[in-house]
Amino acid sequence: MLFRKTVHVCCDSCTEHTLVQNAEFLNDKTIGIPHPGLLTLWNKESEELQWKVFCAAVSPRLDPKLLRELPPRLVIPAASLTYLCHELDGKGLEFWEAESLIIQAVILKEYDTEVLSKLKVPDVYTRAVRISTLFMRTAFIMMMLLASCGYPITIAETLPFKYFDGKLFGCVYHKTKLGTNYEDQCSHKAELMDWYLKVRQIVCGHLEN
């Protein structure tokens, strides 16, 4: 579909529980800037254009300048959450749920595999499992979109282990649901809190304090 200019409708199957529901037919959506063509996007000298097209395809709210200021590992979480919070029809994520995903993505680099393997999730919430599934499905789409835009960040930085761990998210979700603030969850480390605030600004703007 990326190579065809005549595609106006695509088929999308949505999963709920373990069953595939009736497929929906989705109309195409124009982006806010003219598409330059894939050959132009795949030119390594077109990085600024790559970012503009990527952000325009995700959401008109996604600021390419702010997104480029993030560490590469946080690009996909920021883009995915912007889409999930603002571009879905109907009710999207609650602010605190988006916050828990941001915190998890930011602090993940503080955990090695040994520490993650020993984590105990205090409680397993069905809602958290569904959010994880939706987030990772969206992240995979963002990976494909970055690829179609010529990878303005490296392929390695798009890999899920850079920004998501299910057990860590379960712990963060539980703490955030109980009201633990982001400062405590970032262990009051200035760098982590700064990245959290920058991702939150991209996702939520000035709507939340």
Record the SSE blueprint:
Layout: E1 9-12, E2 15-16, E3 19-20, E4 24-27, H1 38-41, H2 47-58, H3 64-68, H4 75-86, H5 95-107, H6 113-117, H7 126-148, H8 166-177, H9 182-185, H10 190-204
Antiparallel strand pairs: 1-4, 2-3
Helix pairs in contact: 4-5, 4-7, 4-10, 5-8, 5-10
How would you describe this structure to a colleague?
It is a single chain. With 209 residues, the chain is mainly alpha-helical. The chain has one domain. The chain is 50% helix and 6% strand. The chain has ten helices and four strands; from the N terminus they run E-E-E-E-H-H-H-H-H-H-H-H-H-H. It has helices at residues 38-41, 47-58, 64-68, 75-86, 95-107, 113-117, 126-148, 166-177, 182-185, 190-204; strands spanning 9-12, 15-16, 19-20, 24-27. The strands form two sheets. It has a two-stranded antiparallel sheet with strand order 1-4. Strands 2-3 form a two-stranded antiparallel ribbon. The longest helix has 23 residues, at 126-148. The chain is globular. It starts with 8 loop residues before the first strand and ends in a 5-residue tail after the last helix.
Properties at a glance:
209 residues; mainly alpha; two-stranded antiparallel ribbon; 4 strands; 50% helix; globular
Q: Tell me the count of domains.
A: 1
| Helix/strand/pairing category | mainly alpha
Please outline the major beta sheet.
2 strands, antiparallel
The portion of residues forming beta strands comes to 5-15%
How many alpha or pi helices?
10
Order of helices and strands: EEEEHHHHHHHHHH
Main β-sheet, spatial strand arrangement: 1-4
Silhouette: globular
> Helical percent range?
40-55%
